[in-house]
Amino acid sequence: MVAISGSVVAALAIGTPTAIIDTPFFSRMTPVLWWNYPVWIITALFTGLILATYVASGTAAGQTFEGKKTAVGSVMSLLAVGCPICNKLVVLALGVSGASSYFAPIQPLLAVASVALLGYALRRRLQALKACPMPPRPAVPRESAAAGPPLQSDPSTTP
């Protein structure tokens, strides 16, 4: 359930501002390209699966933290599938013609890099969970755990 929920949230978080998902708030100035859809879906799936590894029961929770790779990969995917001339930062840095001429051609490279980075982060998480599972905790009755060890009586002070 966590993987599915995380994937849906990631898909909405990437698809809405890039206008892959139609919204009444704004429209995309360039058409969505064919490769935007698979990159968007793979990114959402990988992000949901990575999130699910952090809440899996009986696992070593802090063995490897791939949060930075996940965040960078997701942001790279957002830049890769977004409209090059709709991105205010790119237009501010390069201008509209620069965004079309220089940024648009590198978007497929950003897409490949983001999917590769997310795949690497997922692989690392799965390897860590496989290699370092938490041992099951032995059941200890609450009364004996709270009371501590039994007290020994001193035979010399007994009447």
What does this structure look like?
The protein has five helices and no strands. With 159 residues, the chain is mainly α. Helix 1 packs antiparallel against helix 2, helix 2 (36-55) packs across helix 4 (88-131) and helix 3 (67-81) runs antiparallel to helix 4. The chain is elongated. The model has no long low-confidence stretch (mean pLDDT 82).
Describe how the helices and strands are arranged:
Layout: H1 2-15, H2 36-55, H3 67-81, H4 88-131, H5 142-147
Helix pairs in contact: 1-2, 2-3, 2-4, 3-4
Q: What does the radius of gyration come to? A: 26 Å
Cα-to-Cα separation, first versus last residue: 66 Å
Biggest beta sheet attributes: none
Structural class: mainly alpha
Oligomer: single chain
Structural shape: elongated
Q: How many individual helices?
A: 5
H-E order: HHHHH
Helix content: 55-70%
Instruction: Report low-confidence residues grouped into runs of 5 or more.
Output: none
Q: Kindly estimate the percentage of residues that lie in beta strands according to DSSP.
A: under 5%
Chain-averaged pLDDT: 82
Task: Explain briefly what this protein structure is.
The chain is mostly helical and 159 residues long. Helix content is 62%, strand content 0%.
Which key features would you list for this structure?
elongated, mainly alpha, 159 residues, single chain, 5 helices
